[in-house]
């Protein structure tokens, strides 16, 4: 396609490449542990310092080098008009046109999309918990909680991550959390990010390949996360597969940005046939359903075994079906009339108006006898000045002295545009972003001249061993650290 000559920072923001296939990963063990020279300081250049530790565990930074850059001086709408003009009587662009727009760096957050994927691992303790539970029903409860927790970090995250360059990678080793993780951008058209993680105690393998399908609806951008996620609990010889819910960012033209997740998520245990069905509810007209998640676990005969409810921004609870139904019946009998929202005479009549930001409802009403499955981590007090990052997220782009000697040259910690933005140098970040995009375009032109195909390094295309669908499989050997043939992308 002609678009091969162009690179737009729109994969995770406004890209609408037509793409097909589902993804996940194979169960391949990686041998050989490596102890990263992870340490010495939060910033480059302080040679000789010892890693900060507490009780023998390496400490991670608790803040970014510079506060978030204000977006108040930028308007998405002015950018759309400048790039494509008013192309319809409704005054907004279609999704296809948005795929050709380069958004200013002010709308980004200082992370690559590969690092955002790594945020799935913030609540990895739920996987470890599942591995130690003896009953399939208990394991499914923990896996369901993990699937919900994986999207919790997106709450109030309205900045878009940087699009990974083709061949870009990211690794994370957290001995304190018991896992290591590797990801690679394996395709540019369509954009596909493949990842693989394993427990340091050989208790699990977690993998997948993601390519967000985005749609622009005039006032909002909807991201449908194509691609299958697979979790293998090795001690139980079990594999679970699912797909994340749809994420929608409202008021991208005018008004206050806000996010909701919605859609059905089905988690299948391929060994037992048990399934967990989770309904991420859209906020609804009065915002009463905002952030809510409800569902159940059923056996292979569709008999309900366990009920689940809560909010993906807060917590998840579970209870047996009889108690749940009894409570719901009582609730219906004593149901209070819904309070109507005052009518200001303009209820959604004008398509140019911003979508009202729903008022956050009261906390989850806990049904007596329920079991807490998961609760979100408290965010750091300075989170609002750090792109609403969690404590886990703050540490993801940390580059300590000596790390560059053990990382491949493709690791996104080494990307100068992301590093510039993190350090608060927006002019440098913007210049470097443009340089990297042109470098990628030039490399693409050279391959076209030589009729050479791009070769991925750590993943290869295949079929998911559990669903049979298209997949990207981990090739192994990353942690052997032979990075001599890595591409020069920065």
The value of Rg in angstroms is: 23 Å
Termini separation = 24 Å
Q: Count every beta strand, where a strand is a DSSP E run of 2 or more residues.
A: 20
Structural class given helices, strands, pairing?
alpha+beta
Helical amount: 10-25%
Main pleated-sheet profile? 6 strands, antiparallel, barrel
Strand content: 25-35%
Strand order, main sheet: write it out: 8-9-12-13-11-10
Q: pLDDT under 50 segments (min length 5)?
A: 1-51, 84-100, 336-351
| Overall pLDDT score | 80
Which descriptor suits the 3D outline?
Answer: globular
Number of helices: 10
Order of helices and strands: EEHHEHHHEEEEEEEEEEEEEEHEHHHHEE
Short description:
By secondary structure, the protein is α+β, with helices and mostly antiparallel strands. The protein is built from ten helices and 20 strands.
Write a structural description.
With 490 residues, the protein is an alpha+beta fold. The chain is 19% helix and 25% strand. The chain has helices at residues 76-84, 95-98, 113-118, 125-131, 136-149, 321-333, 391-394, 403-406, 416-422, 426-450, and strands spanning 53-54, 57-58, 108-112, 160-162, 169-174, 179-187, 192-199, 204-216, 220-226, 229-233, 238-242, 246-250, 258-269, 275-280, 292-298, 304-311, 315-319, 371-375, 459-463, 470-474. The strands form 4 sheets. It has a 6-stranded antiparallel beta barrel. Strands 1-2 form a two-stranded antiparallel ribbon. A hairpin with a 5-residue loop joins strand 15 (292-298) and strand 16 (304-311). Helix 4 packs antiparallel against helix 5 and helix 9 (416-422) runs antiparallel to helix 10 (426-450). The longest helix is centred in the C-terminal third of the chain and has 25 residues, at 426-450. It is globular and about 65 Å long. The model is unreliable at 1-51, 84-100 and 336-351 (pLDDT under 50).
């Amino acid at each position: 396609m002609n678009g091969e000559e162009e690179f737009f920072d729109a994969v995770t923001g406004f890209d609408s490449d037509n793409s097909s296939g589902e993804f996940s990963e194979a169960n391949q063990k990686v041998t050989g542990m490596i102890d990263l020279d992870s340490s010495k300081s939060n910033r480059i250049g302080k040679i000789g310092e010892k890693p900060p530790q507490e009780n023998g565990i390496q400490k991670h930074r608790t803040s970014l080098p510079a506060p978030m850059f204000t977006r108040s001086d930028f308007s998405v709408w002015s950018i759309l008009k400048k790039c494509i003009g008013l192309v319809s009587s409704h005054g907004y662009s279609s999704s296809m046109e948005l795929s050709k727009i380069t958004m200013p760096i002010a709308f980004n957050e200082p992370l690559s999309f590969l690092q955002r994927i790594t945020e799935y691992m913030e609540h990895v303790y739920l996987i470890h918990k599942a591995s130690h539970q003896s009953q399939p029903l208990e394991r499914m409860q923990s896996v369901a909680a993990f699937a919900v927790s994986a999207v919790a970090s997106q709450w109030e995250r309205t900045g878009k991550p940087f699009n990974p360059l083709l061949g870009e990678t990211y690794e994370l080793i957290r001995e304190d959390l018991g896992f290591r993780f590797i990801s690679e951008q394996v395709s540019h058209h369509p954009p596909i990010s493949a990842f693989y993680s394993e427990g340091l105690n050989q208790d699990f393998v977690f993998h997948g390949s993601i390519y967000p399908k985005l749609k622009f609806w005039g006032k909002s951008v909807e991201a449908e996360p194509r691609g299958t996620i697979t979790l293998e609990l090795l001690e139980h010889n079990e594999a679970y597969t699912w797909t994340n819910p749809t994420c929608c960012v409202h008021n991208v033209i005018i008004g206050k940005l806000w996010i909701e997740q919605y859609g059905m998520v089905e988690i299948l245990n391929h060994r037992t046939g048990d399934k967990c069905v989770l309904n991420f509810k859209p906020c609804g007209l009065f915002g009463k359903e905002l952030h809510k998640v409800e569902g159940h676990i059923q056996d292979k005969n569709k008999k309900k075994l366990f009920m689940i409810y809560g909010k993906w921004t807060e917590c998840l609870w579970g209870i047996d079906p009889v108690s749940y139904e009894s409570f719901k019946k009582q609730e219906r009998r004593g149901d209070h009339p819904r309070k109507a929202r005052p009518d200001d005479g303009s209820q959604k009549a004008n398509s140019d108006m911003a979508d009202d930001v729903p008022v956050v409802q009261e906390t989850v009403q806990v049904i007596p006898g329920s079991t807490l499955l998961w609760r979100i981590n408290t965010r750091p007090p300075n989170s609002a000045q750090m792109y609403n990052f969690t404590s886990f997220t703050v540490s993801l782009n940390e580059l300590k002295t000596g790390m560059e000697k053990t990382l491949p040259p493709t690791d996104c910690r080494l990307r100068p545009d992301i590093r510039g933005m993190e350090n608060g140098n927006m002019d440098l970040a913007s210049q470097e972003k443009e340089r990297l995009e042109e470098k990628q375009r030039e490399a693409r032109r050279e391959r076209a001249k030589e009729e050479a195909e791009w070769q991925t390094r750590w993943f290869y295309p295949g079929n998911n061993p559990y669903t049979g669908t298209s997949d990207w499989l981990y090739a192994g050997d990353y942690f052997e650290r032979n990075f001599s043939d890595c591409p020069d992308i920065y």
